[in-house]
Design a protein that fits this description.
single chain, 387 residues, alpha/beta, Aspartate Aminotransferase, domain 1, Aspartate Aminotransferase, domain 2, 2 domains, three-stranded antiparallel sheet, 12 strands
Length: 387
């Protein structure tokens, strides 16, 4: 996958936009992205609207939904017509599974230790249809792409992949995997929760059938707000719940009609969740996504890649390992410990006011533009003490 950050300019520290005390090193965006100060203010305004519901008009149920849909589309590089508003990654993946055919004897390819949302749904679908789950074991040399390509064959119905492993940022080249999947007539489903917003996504090169992205991590959005990209050739499918807000003409109606409408709004809107018009979450998401676009995803990546590289280099001095620089995306990194991590390593680091996540046998470190050298120094000092 080409490095799209080489010409982008890194950002100066953006810590002033967040409420992060100086003595806390929060290097854990892959767990939860903190709210921006302006997003918090927008949420308070949204709460006040619900305190006074008579101020909410029919258009209020649509305007911010469409603004947020369009902002995410710009981050992903798609049309707003291709984006659905959903509550979670598991919901979006359930939509994909409900609309993809998997026949008896076929297989679904997933990486070993994949996140549960992108595993359970395919496990269930495969069992129900007499298909196999084909788990790609973590490669000893760190080359996930070659390992995945070796498991795709004529019987592959679905390849369910992230473009970096959620535990350590290991790269999975979705351009190559997308081409191999299409060659055998399979569908590519991407859980991009741990990359979109922090690293450029090559939608035109990957050509996925579906892309799922939770909003509460790298997109700085509230919980229970996520996004589902549905390729144009998949937009005649069916959602997994049914309501009136995404039906043709619903925006212009009073909301009190007795008539049932069976035509949908255009594009991927037919897959939207019910109660998508959250008057608190959407204003907050609008602020967050707008700020990401203002920074530029390539500039975010150009800021984070040197930071994770320094962390890897300094961690190596302590005897800790990390995926090779050319086999990982640059915004998050998982450190391995040859002695094994103590189960309470997270709690010990927390006592040092350093916040990261233990994921399996990897200590996952995920900075953002609010982090700086002082945070890195605090992390390394804590690791020196407790690793």
């Amino acid at each position: 996958m080409p490095d799209t950050t080489t010409t982008a300019q890194p950002l100066a520290s953006q810590r002033h936009l967040f409420d992060l005390p100086r003595d806390i090193a929060y290097i854990n965006c892959a767990y939860f992205g903190p709210f921006m100060n302006k997003a918090r203010e927008a949420g308070i305004v949204g709460i006040d609207r619900r305190v006074h519901p008579w101020t909410i008009s029919r258009s209020s149920f649509y305007d911010e939904v469409e603004e947020v849909r369009g902002l995410f589309a710009r981050i992903l590089g798609s049309s707003a017509e291709d984006v659905s508003i959903v509550p979670s990654s598991s919901y979006g993946l359930a939509v994909a599974a409900a609309n993809l055919e998997i026949r008896k004897g076929q297989n679904v390819v997933v990486p070993q230790h994949e996140h549960s949302s992108n595993f359970y749904v395919w496990h269930k679908k495969a069992l129900e249809n007499g298909a196999a789950i084909r788990i790609v074991e973590r490669p000893a040399d760190g080359d996930w792409t070659a390992a995945v390509l070796a498991r795709i064959d004529a019987g592959t119905a679905v390849v369910a992949m992230p473009n970096c492993h959620w535990s350590d940022g290991s790269l999975i080249d979705l351009v190559a995997i997308g081409a191999a999947t299409r060659k055998v007539g399979g569908a590519l489903v991407v859980d991009a929760t741990q990359s979109v917003g922090a690293w450029p996504f090559d939608l035109a090169g990957v050509k996925p059938d579906y892309v799922m992205c939770s909003g509460y991590k790298w997109l700085f959005c509230p919980y229970v707000l996520s996004f589902l990209y549905v390729a144009p050739h998949r937009q005649t499918g069916s959602g997994i719940e049914f309501h009136g807000f995404n039906r043709e003409g619903a925006r212009e109606s009073s909301g009190g009609s007795f008539e049932h409408v069976f035509e949908f709004e255009p594009g991927a809107r037919r897959f939207d969740m019910g109660e998508r018009s959250n008057f608190v979450s959407l204003p907050m998401a609008k602020v967050a996504l707008g700020q990401l676009l203002s920074w530029g995803v390539a500039s975010i990546a150009a800021t984070l890649a040197p930071m994770t590289r320094r962390i890897a280099e300094r961690a190596a001095e302590l005897g800790l390992g990390a995926p090779r620089a050319d086999r990982r995306l640059g915004h998050l990194i998982g450190l391995s410990n040859p002695k094994g991590w103590a189960p309470d390593i997270g709690a010990k680091l927390w006592q040092e006011r350093v916040h990261v996540s233990l994921r399996g046998d990897r200590l996952r470190i995920s900075p953002h533009v609010y982090n700086d050298q002082q945070d890195v120094d605090r992390l390394i000092a804590a690791l020196r003490k407790h690793a």
